[in-house]
Amino acid sequence: MDFGPTEEEAAFRTELRSWLATALPRLPPKPSPDDWPGRRAYDTHWQRMLYDAGYGRLHWDADPGLRLVFLEETELAGAPYVGANFVGLLHAGPTIAAEGTPEQRERWLGPILRGDEIWCQGFSEPGAGSDLAALRTRAVRDGDAYVVTGSKIWTSHAEVADWCELLVRTDPAAPRHRGISWLALSMDAPGITVRPLRTLAGTAEFAEVFLDEVRVPAAHRVGAENDGWRVTMVTLSFERGTAFAGEVVACRRTLAALAAAARETGRWDDPVLRRRLGRLHAEFTALWRLVQWNVSEARTGGTVPGPGGSVFKLRYSGARQELYETAAEVLGPDALDLGREWAVDRLSSLSYTIAAGTSQIQRNIIAERLLGLPKGGA
Amino acid sequence: MRFRLTEDQRALQSATRGLLERVCPPKALRAMADGAGPPRLDRVVWAALAEAGVFALRLPEDAGGVGLGAPEAVLVFEELGRALVPGPLAATHLAAGRVAGAATGETVVTRADGGLVAWLAEADVVEGYGTGGGAGPSGAGPSGVGPPGAESPGAGAFGAVPPVALPPGPGLPGAVPLRSVDPLTPLHRVPAPADPGPWDPSAALLTAAEQLGTAGRVTELAVRYAREREQFGRPVGSFQAVKHLCADMLVRTELARAAVYAAALSGDPAETAGAKLISDDAAVANARDCVQIHGGMGFTWEADIHLHLKRAWLRARTRPVAAEAEEAAARALAASAGPPAPRPSL
Ligand SMILES: Cc1cc2nc3c(=O)[nH]c(=O)nc-3n(C[C@H](O)[C@H](O)[C@H](O)COP(=O)(O)OP(=O)(O)OC[C@H]3O[C@@H](n4cnc5c(N)ncnc54)[C@H](O)[C@@H]3O)c2cc1C
């Protein structure tokens, strides 16, 4: 048991640090949060820079120890986060790498890594959220294509996406979990309508996607027909297991900024507030240690993260909300000013206990899959 | 980075668990809790712990110790906490190499901490009494105490320990027996110094490890009961309200585990304070939830859960208590919050 960096990790950290020092000043100015095409261009540009420097694959098939170094160093240097590349890099890419055919890996992984193509996730439907297996979007086989009809909801980044990891029902007669398939849908295909939805933060982060007899080549199915639920579990385990790790580092930085602000305004002298900040510091330090622990354990397991990710996701999402509640106390009246990034972040933090499986669902997973408690019950 | 247990560490863990199941089974604890009067320290068990190296674990081999480090000590103390082993375990362990006979279990060492002393009447040596603000007598070095300022063993989080030792028993001025809430830990109240001085990170780490053991143990007890106990024709563990309590228990335990193991590795006092804070919470909240999941059974003297809860309360009272740990973490945070604000809008 040690934290000591391996030789490879130490060398990687040094090299990455010096690359960041020269690369970051070359970044274009950051677009405004509402400017989606601008955000897409900015995020994909950053991904391309990473790719050209040889850091493109770090999110899914590198040594997990190197990935943690990458997350730490990019965050500490103030580098951009994955942004619009989120689904491609953190969910779809790893899923295709694990489950796709050689042709599929060849077709999709390169463009994701180079930042040429953006993905979105079409899992949730109006009638299938937590109960994802209730999804009804139909795909009917017609020659070498599927004809897809239905609708998806809460699809993040749908407006700017090129591809969508889409769950469809290919066998309505089969038991719910058995008749599902995982398709790669080109967002250019005729029959797709994207309608942006406004979030409570006032931003347009996600959208509704309507599918009206959209043709998807059968060759774009990842995994066997009707075996999509298993593939979905692979995707979700990446989503819950590793996708949030980098954000802990970001939260620690935010907390430090909060402490600096509290000291500037004199609020630091309030022992109740100060201790609350201290407690959060202990919490986020421990959460980062938990990430390191999970990653070390995963290194000996398979490439797909286990349900231990739910343990982290549940605690992290709650801690993040507590962080922004405390931020509001530090800011006082300014906490109600939407011109402050803090106020927007506080609103955004509400999504963390909902997206990627609600906290209630994470608790079910932990209780049933990790503790072996019986399924079902009122 | 290899932040996971090595084969040797796993072996140590399971060997310790096996030993404690033999020498300190729940039945023996129950008999002790049910006995009249304050519990007596079982010197046979104490000798068995010493024999297994519990106290000499971090003493160098050439000083007759096992020569292991803070991470191993934490694994052993997690098991001691799990098994609810009574006695001033951390104080004696920390005295090994400084107080003659502590490493071998012949001398039982306790400490005054936060106005309380555990096991006063049973201990041979009391440390820490009268340090800091000087409310009590100080300076005396009775027989059985090693030279003051002698090197403390091990590395990492284990640093200085309070230098003062006094003979125990009725001779300790101002000590008043309490009716201890923990039937397995006799307590005396002693005059607390006005300025208690710094807390000891080594003691905090070992106590945090014991709390981690408790947190994990009561989670197991709760989950086992939830699978067995039936109501409305099915195991209560199939009810989501119960499941969610159990899930939160596991999450608290796992976060505490990461925090405690990490503090053992980093040796950082602020991280150790954080680990104490998080594991105190985990042990106390999990023990309470465990009572809840056991329903009426949980409120009885017969179920062992209250013994775990009371010990968790007691350890949470040892320094650093929550407010001290939060202040320590806040100081570390302030130190990390350098002058430039990373957020432009700040
Ligand atoms: C910001 C954001 C971005 C998102 N992005 C995407 C995306 O890109 N692609 C995508 O496919 N989806 C996305 N989602 C959808 C997200 O996965 C779902 O919102 C989530 O799974 C919950 O489903 P729901 O909204 O239908 O809520 P519901 O499932 O209707 O839940 C309503 C309430 O009931 C509770 N509940 C439901 N079932 C149970 C149960 N069995 N036990 C206990 N409580 C239960 C829930 O916890 C919740 O409190 C996003 C959501 C948000 C907020």
TrEMBL record, chain A:
GO CC terms in record: plasma membrane
Molecular functions (GO terms): flavin adenine dinucleotide binding; oxidoreductase activity, acting on the CH-CH group of donors
Domain Acyl-CoA oxidase/dehydrogenase middle per the UniProt entry, residue ranges: 120-213
The organism's place on the tree of life at top rank: Bacteria
Keywords, alphabetical: FAD, Flavoprotein, Oxidoreductase
Reported cofactor(s): FAD
Family: Belongs to the acyl-CoA dehydrogenase family.
Cited PANTHER family: ACYL-COA DEHYDROGENASE, ACYL-COA DEHYDROGENASE FADE29
Protein name as it appears in the record: Acyl-CoA dehydrogenase
Species of provenance: Streptomyces tsukubensis (strain DSM 42081 / NBRC 108919 / NRRL 18488 / 9993)
Lineage, highest ranks first: Bacteria, Bacillati, Actinomycetota, Actinomycetes, Kitasatosporales
From TrEMBL, chain B:
Species this protein is from: Streptomyces tsukubensis (strain DSM 42081 / NBRC 108919 / NRRL 18488 / 9993)
Residue span, Acyl-CoA dehydrogenase/oxidase N-terminal domain: 6-89
Domain Acyl-CoA dehydrogenase/oxidase C-terminal: 205-323
Keywords: FAD, Flavoprotein, Oxidoreductase
Family membership: Belongs to the acyl-CoA dehydrogenase family.
GO molecular function: acyl-CoA dehydrogenase activity; flavin adenine dinucleotide binding
Bias (Gly residues) ranges: 132-147
Top-level taxon of origin: Bacteria
Name of the protein this chain belongs to: Acyl-CoA dehydrogenase
Pfam families referenced in this protein's UniProt entry, alphabetically: Acyl-CoA_dh_1 (PF00441), Acyl-CoA_dh_N (PF02771)
SUPFAM superfamilies: Acyl-CoA dehydrogenase C-terminal domain-like, Acyl-CoA dehydrogenase NM domain-like
Cofactor: FAD
Region named Disordered: 132-156
